[in-house]
Design goal:
Elements lengths: L6 E5 L8 E7 L14 E5 H5 L18 E4 L7 E9 L15 H6 L1 E6 L24 E4 L20 E9 L9 E9 L4 H4 L3 E6 L5 E13 L3 E12 L12 E9 L7 H4 L7 E7 L5 E8 L3 H5 L5 E8 L2 E2 L20 E5 L9 E7 L17 E8 L5 H15 L47 E3 L25 E3 L121 E10 L3 E3 L4 H8 L7 E8 L22 E5 L6 E6 L2 E4 L81
Antiparallel strand pairs: 1-20, 2-3, 2-5, 4-5, 4-6, 7-19, 8-13, 8-20, 9-10, 9-19, 10-11, 11-12, 13-16, 14-15, 16-17, 16-18, 21-22, 23-24, 23-25, 23-26, 26-27, 27-28
């Protein structure tokens, strides 16, 4: 995961429009003892000065670099070198007193048109490389990517291509403007190039649109085989954009993060060869005879092989605003019936691999675009750029949000989207479980229409605080915690009936263990505990554990949980009370990173002909909630599908049947999906699957809530709640039971020694929890 940026820059005082340029004389006496250093300072008109260096086909102001050095020979017999000190807006020209008597135009004409790349080259040594470009007041700030790295400045400052992908992270401020202007804020590629054979697939920009969207643009290369002319190249513009950014979230400082993650991960020599720049290499030869080679040249050119390797450059592009994914505009999902769900990822997005083609290649620009490239990127960003960073690695959603929450937001004045409506978690006060004491009726009537239930309506309120220990470059340490505090409040509604029908609602608790302590009688009740073989180390005790202790893992501390009492109905067979323990009980370990992305092995490949599914594992409530580790949380999330944004990852499998492997979209690698609960939604009814070590374990069934049943008007005994939190349910030997409260908070089921008499009226309904069939996804 990305931790250290290649660069972090602050452009708070930068200018998007320039009037003058300041030049300071460089003291070259360190390299030449005969150099005459005069300490001359000049402030010259920017347009008048830069136009002096224009060449055929190129305007110098379009390609100026902050490290450029100029040679002045206007003083007879002397040579003076000048470097750029800064740029200004609204200032006028100033001539150094040592050059009094010279007009500005005469001074400008005294410069040679030869430009030295940087002052370091003045040492005259062969192989001297230039450092990265200085940050001054001008925008865009332009860096040359293939120099400035390493201890000698001769390595790449920014790699042409990375193992996995890259991340951009910016903080902007619109300076009080309410509207938007069309402005490029990032560009990479070739600069001031006008031939598509040089700039195609060698350019990329991100910009704000006039209606507040983020838009990416690339001028791309393709081709086809013509029966007459042979292979014919084609050039086209490829673009995509988000929906408009929320107005409130851009009213002050705001954070934009852009992540590209390639499907294929490459290392070492795979990086240039697998869809990389070596596919562009064309070796040409000049020979005096058909068999004698005299010279050979190697160039990078667009060709058919480059197109054939396109699939090795594809991946996913994601854009985040204030730590949250931004929905994509006009995207059609490749999954049938999935297009109605908001999409947050540009899939099959082709990365731009910088190529040694064109006038000024290997450019990385912040705060503006460039000329050339079909005039697709020609604008400058006049918003204040308070922070700009580039990472040669990827960031996933939890990491982006954690970095935003712990590093970006505390450092800037950020207003969230709709922050005036502050999210508040309402914690309901648990109510006491009533003791049910029926009044004995002298003549109990048996009426078929008497169907009654205790309707239990649990309120599940969860507070999720996502944070994680990270060590960014500017902060020594952070040790936040993760606290998930659900409150389950059961409020039973007593209907007026003589028959007590159970509403079997399991305790929804973070603790994975629910144990019942039956009383010892001659005919003990059978309470099966439905616990699968893949249960991961649950603790079993008479009292459910309320605070798991998990070392080095963010703790999840459940709040007080009131377990609804289980009251058996008066039926012929009340002795079996199945436990509603979920069929899969994962260990209570919350992983901040929802997806485990292993490095693929080149010796293993994913099978062909698999079906692609979206495995959802996060939703934005707010707050952002990950439900991958809890069936209860996944069941709660299931109710929200279609109403709020959900996020997840793509998986490939032959079917959603039990024990089928699910492959992670790691190119064509055989990497398997991580363990956890996922929601599958393809436009029909969403459902939950549990994946265990990459294989589908079960189709999890959420606990159902017994519906409320309207009673008839038959007179019923009065139910008087006692002060005891949990009753012990002891049916009597007569058809009409007496419910005696227990003093023990743990419910105890004690059936009578005498079987339920056969005379029990059949009209008294027995409500037994039904088993919900496992949904079988279609397709």
């Amino acid at each position: 995961m990305a931790t250290t940026p290649v660069y972090e820059k602050n452009f708070t005082n930068s200018l998007c429009y320039i009037d003058t340029i300041q030049l300071n004389e460089y003291d070259n006496s360190i390299n030449n003892t005969g150099y005459t250093y005069s300490g001359i300072t000049l402030i010259l008109d920017y347009t008048g000065f830069t136009s002096h260096f224009n060449t055929t086909g190129h305007t110098y102001s379009n390609v100026i670099l902050n490290n450029d050095v100029y040679t002045y020979t206007g003083i007879t017999g002397e040579t003076h070198y000048f470097t750029i000190s800064d740029f200004y807006s609204g200032s006028t020209s100033t001539i150094d007193p040592l050059l009094t008597g010279f007009s500005e135009s005469e001074i400008v004409s005294g410069f040679t048109t030869s430009i030295i790349h940087c002052a370091d080259i003045l040492d005259g040594l062969t192989g001297t490389c230039c450092p990265t470009q200085a940050v001054l007041s001008n925008l865009p700030w332009v860096a040359i990517t293939n120099e400035g790295g390493g201890t000698d400045n001769c390595s790449d400052y920014i790699a042409r291509r990375n193992e996995k992908g890259w991340t951009l992270d910016y903080v902007f401020n619109k300076n009080g403007l309410t509207g938007w202007t069309d402005s490029v804020f990032f560009f990479t590629g070739v600069r001031d190039e006008y031939d598509p054979i040089n700039y195609a697939d060698n350019n990329l920009s991100f910009k704000f649109t006039e209606d507040g969207r983020i838009k990416w643009s690339v001028y791309r290369y393709s081709g086809y085989c013509d029966t007459v002319s042979g292979y014919t190249p084609v050039y086209y513009i490829s673009t995509g954009q988000t929906i408009p950014l929320c107005t409130g979230g851009t009213s002050d400082d705001f954070n934009i993060t852009i992540v590209f993650e390639r499907y294929y991960y490459y290392v070492d020599c795979e990086i240039p060869n697998e869809g990389g720049w070596n596919d562009l290499i064309n070796t040409g030869y000049t020979s005096t005879t058909s068999s004698t080679i005299v010279t050979g040249t190697t160039t990078e050119e667009l060709n058919h092989k480059w197109l054939d390797e396109r699939s090795k450059r594809l991946g996913k592009l994601k854009i985040f605003h204030n730590g949250r994914p931004v929905e994509i505009d006009d995207v059609h999902s490749s999954i049938a019936n999935f297009r109605n769900v908001p999409v947050y990822v540009f899939k099959d997005w082709e990365e731009v691999v910088l190529s040694d083609r064109g006038f000024q290649p290997f450019v990385h620009a912040v705060g503006g675009g460039v000329t050339g490239s079909g005039d697709l990127h020609n604008s400058v960003c006049c918003y204040t750029i308070k922070y700009a960073a580039y990472f040669e690695d990827i960031m996933n959603f939890p990491y982006v949000f954690d970095r935003y929450s712990t590093l970006i937001k505390p450092s800037y004045t950020i207003v969230e989207c709709g922050e005036s409506c502050t999210d508040e978690v309402v914690m309901s006060t648990p109510s006491q479980t009533p003791t049910l004491t029926p009044t004995t009726s002298k003549t109990p009537s048996i009426t078929p229409s008497i169907t009654t239930s205790i309707s239990v309506s649990p309120t599940i309120t969860s507070t999720v605080t996502l944070s994680r220990t990270i060590t960014p470059s500017r902060t020594p340490s952070r040790t936040p915690s993760i606290s998930i505090t659900p409150t389950i409040t059961s409020s039973p509604t007593m209907s007026k009936t003589p028959s007590v029908t159970p509403s079997v609602t399991p305790s929804i608790s973070i603790s994975p263990t629910i144990a019942l302590s039956p009383s010892v009688t001659k005919t003990p009740s059978i309470t099966p505990s439905i616990t699968p073989s893949k249960t991961i180390t649950p603790s079993i005790s008479k009292t459910p554990s309320r605070t798991p202790n998990i070392s080095k893992t963010p703790s999840r501390t459940p709040s007080r949980t009131i377990t609804p009492s289980i009251t058996p109905s008066i039926s012929k067979t009340p002795s079996r009370t199945p436990s509603k323990t979920p069929s899969k009980t994962p260990a209570i370990t919350l992983s901040i990173t929802p997806s485990i992305t292993p490095t693929p092995s080149t010796s293993c490949a994913r099978p062909l002909g698999l079906t692609e599914y979206k495995f959802l594992s996060l939703y934005d409530g707010p707050p952002i909630t990950e439900f991958i580790s809890s069936l209860n949380m996944a069941c709660n999330a299931l109710l929200l599908v279609g109403s709020i944004p959900f996020y997840g990852q793509t998986g490939y499998t032959s079917s959603l049947s039990i024990d089928e492997p699910v492959y992670y979209p790691d190119g064509t690698s055989c990497s398997l999906m991580g363990t956890g609960y996922y929601i599958i939604y393809t436009g029909g009814t969403p459902f939950i699957v549990y994946i265990n070590d990459g294989y589908i374990g079960i189709h999890s069934i959420c606990p159902s809530i017994t519906p409320s049943i309207t009673p008839s008007k038959t007179p019923t005994p009065t139910l008087t709640p006692s002060k005891t939190p949990t009753p012990t349910l002891t049916p009597s030997e007569t058809p009409t039971p007496t419910l005696t409260p227990s003093e023990t908070p743990t419910p105890t089921l004690t059936p009578s020694e005498t079987p339920t008499p056969s005379e029990t009226p059949s009209e008294t309904p027995s409500i037994t929890p039904s088993e919900t069939p496992t949904p079988t996804p279609s397709g």
